[in-house]
Amino acid sequence: MAHYLVTGGAGFIGSHLAEELVRRGEQVRVVDSLITGKRHNLSHLQGVEFIEGDLAEIAVARRVCEGMDFVLHQAAIPSVPRSVEDPVTSNRANIDASVNILVAARDAGVRRLVYAGSSAAYGDTPTLPKVETMPTAPLSPYALQKLVAEQYCQMFTRLYGLETVTTRYFNVFGPRQDPSSPYSGVISLFISALSEGRAPKIYGDGGQTRDFTYVANVVDGVLRACHSPGVSGEVINVATGGRVSLNELFATLRALMGAGVTPEYQPARAGDVRDSQADISKARRLLGYEPTVTFGDGLARTVTWVKAAAAGMS
Ligand code: UD1
């Protein structure tokens, strides 16, 4: 049994990591500022130690790293448009907090830190799929912050010997993704609109594409990144390797949910990337990773969960 710290563990992805670690019989500590996370996301789990705190304060970062073997650093303000509107708050959460957790992990003798990077770092370069060796081209404060923090991770590995791995996520979706903010992920927003008979908004012409990745695949990729030998200092895409347009996403969801609404098209968002698709051969090679839940199955599971939650069963 090892001790794991999940930062942002009351959030969407973090709570799925905590759940899997509990299922495996590990000791789990969660730190979350509850800016976007929710206590409720952990209420079904036994034995998770919860600490409310802001990692942009170094004392909090030091306290939560004490006694930990592994740190899964998921805490962030994970929105492109929110960072465009308020780069300062976003910078504090995405960079200052990351530097603090790296310093604290180093000083606490943590064995490895796995960082939640973002495919946003690739920007709008025309080549698809995105390979980790490609030059980065961040288009938004969020994308830049995620890239800076992953470079900090690599630097801490080189300078101080702290083992770090960055998993670059591609549009993660699934149960517990919160649809309540205009900054929420598009799948959660579409499902909540369709279930209430409202017209979802599509920014731009809907031809933009994403490598939508069901959260169970990400959990598997992160835990492999935590335990695979010889990968310290690496940056590794974790995704499905496919690509679906917003128009296709909407059509699939409408068919799945039997809703009759049509989308409302709005101007494209500032800082938005046109196309995103991962090359996952590095994850296959270094981590033995293989996506196990397809986009279609993931959507069906997510819709089932939303319906159950609405009926008060979840
Ligand atoms: C998402 C993640 C980001 C992650 C990145 C990795 C969220 C909130 N953001 O950014 O943390 O690092 O993937 O690739 O999960 N859209 C609409 N209608 C809406 C909302 C969005 O058309 O109501 C469009 C957006 O303009 C964009 C696409 O859907 O083209 C996806 O947007 P969003 O879900 O916010 O994710 P990303 O910006 O791709």
Please explain how this structure is put together:
- By secondary structure, the chain is α/β, with parallel strands linked by helices.
- The chain has a domain at 3-170 and 215-240 and 278-293: Rossmann fold.
- It has helices spanning 12-23, 58-65, 80-85, 87-108, 141-160, 186-195, 215-227, 246-257, 281-287, 295-310; strands spanning 3-7, 27-32, 49-52, 70-73, 112-118, 164-169, 172-173, 201-203, 209-210, 213-214, 235-238, 244-245, 264-266.
- The strands form four sheets. It has a seven-stranded parallel β-sheet with strand order 3-2-1-4-5-6-11, sandwiched between helices.
- The longest helix has 22 residues, at 87-108.
- 51% of the residues are buried.
- The mean pLDDT is 96.
- Uridine-diphosphate-N-acetylglucosamine is lined by residues 78-80, 118-120, 169-171, 184-186, 189, 200-203, 208, 210, 246, 269, 272, 276.
Give a quick set of tags describing it.
314 residues; alpha/beta; Rossmann fold; 7-stranded parallel beta sheet; two-stranded parallel ribbon; 13 strands; 40% helix; globular; binds uridine-diphosphate-N-acetylglucosamine
